[in-house]
Amino acid sequence: MGTSIPVLIVKRVGLGLLLLLAVSILIFAGTQILPGDVAQSILGQSATPQALANLRAELGLNDPAWLRYLHWLGGILTGDLGTALTSRQDIASSLWPRLKNTLFLAFWAAAISVPLAIALGLIAVRYRNGFVDKAISAFALASTSFPEFFVGYLLVFFFAVKWQFFPGISTVYDGMPFLARMQAIALPATALTLVVLAHMMRMTRAAILNVMQSAYIETAELKGLRPIEIIRRHAFPNAVAPIVNVVMLNLAYLVVGVVVIEVIFVYPGMGQYLVDHVAKRDVPVVQAVGLIFAAVYIGMNIIADIVAIVANPRLRHPK
Amino acid sequence: MGAKERPLIHGSEIAIMSNELDYLSRRVAAGKLNRRDFLGRAAALGVGAVAAQSLLTSAVRAQGPVKGGLLRAGLQGGEATNTLDPALNLSQVPFNFCKQWGEFLVRLDRKGGLEPRIATEINPSDGGKTWTIKVRDGVEFHDGKTVTAQDVAATLERHADEKSQSGALGVLKDIKTIKANGKEVVVTLGEADADFPYLMADYHLVIQPNGGKDKPDAGISAGPYKVSVNEPGVRYGGERFANYWNAGKQGFADQVEIVVVNDPTARMAALQGGQVNFINRVEPKIVDLVKRIPGVQVRNVAGKGYYPFNMFCDTAPFDNNDLRMALKLAMDREGMLKTILRGYGSVGNDFPINKSYPLFADDIEQRVFDPEKAAELYKKSGHSGSILLRTSDVAFPGAVDAAQLYQQSCAQAGIQIEIKREPGDGYWSQVWNKQPFSTSYWGGRSTQGQMYSTGYLSTADWNDTRFKNESFDKMLFAARSELDEAKRQAIYRDMAVLMRDQGGAIVPFFNEFIDATGRGVEGYENHPEAELMDGYALSECWLSA
C-alpha cells in the first residue's frame, strides 16, 4: 500500500503547522512566566512609581492572558507582528533587516561549510583509517570542541588585530557594497563554518561507511569500479537521508543558535535582537522572534523529512 | 605628577627647557616630529610623561582642530530596544549619541560650573523660587526652524509632565508653572531651589521643536550633527550640521558614528584594529595591558559614580545604628579599591559625595577599616546569626567579588555575612530598592543637593537605604534655597557628616570612567561628569592630519 509523494508531503507540512501552533502556545505561556515587569525593565533604574503606573496602563498589561494570546495570534495570521513595547516601533519592519542579516550570514556559512563538510567526509571515507582520514577528523573535531567564543576570539586576534586582513567588528547595513559586506562577514562566517563543520563531516563519513558494508558495494568493487566512483554513484545516494538530516539541523543552528558569534563580532542579527528584548521584557518581540525561530526549525526538519522520503522508497511504504 | 618626580630644577633651567619643548611640541603639532620621539626628548630634558603630554595637547590645540573625516566610537550600553526619544535616555549609547545631535540649555564645565548653551542666562528671583531662562538668538534646529522660547518651554513641559516617562521627571517634578514670554522662559517652583540651573543640564533635556510633543523620537534638535543613521542596538550616524550655532568649538569631523559593541574584548579589538577611534568601559583588570599597546591611550577620570552597599535603615536588623556602624567599620575600603577597581577609583566615606562635586567639604574624617571597633559595636547591637547580603554581576562590575571580600573582612570582626547571588535579569526590579541589604551603583548627579534629593530624602522614590531623617530633610531644603555658596557648603558638610554616621549606605569606593582612544585622536580632555568627555568626545575631538 504505497501513498503518493504529494500526499505524504502535504501531511508532513500539515503536521508542521500544527506543531507551530503548539509552539506558539508554549512561547506565549513561557513569556508570561518570565520574572520581572515590562514597565520596570523599560524604565530601568530611573523609574519612578508614577512613571511605572502610567506606562503599565498604557501598555495594556492589565488584560487577562488568554485575551492577549488571541489578539496576538490573530495579528500574526494577518501578518501583523505587533509593536515593540520598548521602542514603539513596528516589529515586522525592525525585525526584517535583522532576519535578512541572519539569513545572509547563515547562507554564506552554509555555502562554505556544507560542500566542504561533505567533500571532506567523502575524502575521509576514501582514505579511511589512513593519515588523511585521521587528519581531517582531528581538525574538524578540534574546531568543534573549542567553544565558539574561543574560536571567534582567535580569529579576531590574528586576522583583525595582528594582521588586520579583516575587520574585527562585522557591522553591516543596508546599502553597503557587496564586497565590503563579504569582507565584514568573513570572520564570523569562518567561525561558524569551523563550529558546524565536524558534525556534518562525521555524519557523512559514518553514513557512507555504514553503506559501504553492503553487498552491492562489494559487487561494485568486484566489477572493478574505482573507489571514489563507488562512493559517488552507489554509496552516497543511499546514505543521503541521514546526511540531509544533519545538514538541516546545522542550517537551523546557523539561523537560530548564533547569539555568541553575533556578540563577539558585533553582527546585527536576530540573536542579539532577541537577547536585548528578553532583557527588557519586550514580550511581543520575544514572541515574534521565538515564533520565527520555531518556524525555521520546523521548516528545516520538514525539508529533511521530505528529502529522506523522496530519496528512500522504503519510507514511503510503512509497514 | 611629572613635576613632582623631579623637584630640583632652577628657574633658568625651566625657561630654557620649556623653550625647547615648546619648539618641539609645535613641530609635533605640525606633523614634523612624531609623538614618541617628542616624549623621548622631553624625558631627556627631565620632564615626566604626563607633563609632556599635557604640553603636547595644548600645542596641538593651539595649532587648531583639523576639520573633516569620520570619527567612530565603539561603545557598550546600547540595545535594540533604544529609541531617539531623549526622555527615555538611559544607557551609554543613547547618552553619547544625544550629545551629538541634541542641544541643551546649559552644560556642565570641567570645574563643576555651568557653560551657557541655548540659555544665555538663568537668573533667580523671589529667593530662588522663580527662574528666568534667556534663550539665545539665532540658534537653528536641524529642520531649519529657529529655537524659540516656546520650544524651550514645551520641552520642559513635556519632561515635567506627570504622565511622561522622562528620566528627568524626578528632578523636574517641583516645577509649578512654565511660561514663555518673548525671548524668555519663566519657571516657578514649589520650593526654592538654588540648584535649578544645574538641573537644566540633565542629559534628558534635549531641546526639541515644540518640545518633542509631536514626535518625541524624531531626532531633531540643534546639536552639531544631524541624525543620518538610526539603527538601535547596531549603529548611529551623524552628519555635520552646516548651521550649527557653536561651530568654532564643536563638530570638527564631517561625520560621526557610534557602533554598539557590548562585548569588552570585541571593543578592544576594534580599537586596536583601527575600526573605531574611541571606546568606553575599559575593564580595570586589563588597563595595564592596554597601556602597552602602541597608539592606544587610556583616558581615566575620577567621577561622581559610586558603588554602595545599601542597608534599609527602617528594617531589622539594620534599624539599629550600632549594627549599621559595625558593618561600615568592617569594610576594608583600601583593599576593596585595590582588588576590585585595581586602584582606578577613590575610597568612599559612607556619603555619596566626593571631590568631583562643587562645594565639597574635604575636611571630613575618612572612615577606615577597624575590625575591633566593629566587633565591639556588633556585640553592643545584640544581633546574632548571619546577615544576608544580596548581590549580582549587574550591580556593578566586580560586585560579586566585592561581596566576597566584604564577607572576609566582616569575618575578622566576628560578623557573619551570607551572600546570595541574584540573577542579573530582574535585579533592578526585584532586588534593588526592594531587599534590605544589597549592592548597587549610582551615577552621581550634577550637584550635592540633587544627589541627596534623588536618593536620600525621606520622600525620594529612590531612597534605596530608607534613610528617613527629619533634620537631614530640613537641612536639604535649607541648602537648596540658600543662595549664599559658603553657607550652602556648610549645610552640605553637616548633611554629609550626618549621613556618614547614621545613614544606611556603605560607600566603599567611587569608580573612575576608563575610556580609551586610538591613533590620531586629538583634542581629548577629560571631563569629570561622565564618560568620553561627558559624551562630547565625538564632537570636540578631531583626527590629526
TrEMBL record, chain A:
Subcellular location field? Cell membrane
Which SUPFAM superfamilies does this chain map to?
A: MetI-like
Task: List the protein's name.
Answer: ABC transporter permease
| Alphabetical keyword list | Cell membrane, Membrane, Transmembrane, Transmembrane helix, Transport
Primary site of residence: membrane
Which ranges does the record mark as transmembrane?
12-34, 103-125, 146-166, 178-198, 239-265, 285-311
For this protein, the record's PROSITE patterns field holds: ABC_TM1 (PS50928)
CDD domains hit by this protein: TM_PBP2
Domain called ABC transmembrane type-1: residue spans: 99-304
Query: InterPro entries under this entry?
Result: BPD_transp_1_N (IPR045621), MetI-like (IPR000515), MetI-like_sf (IPR035906)
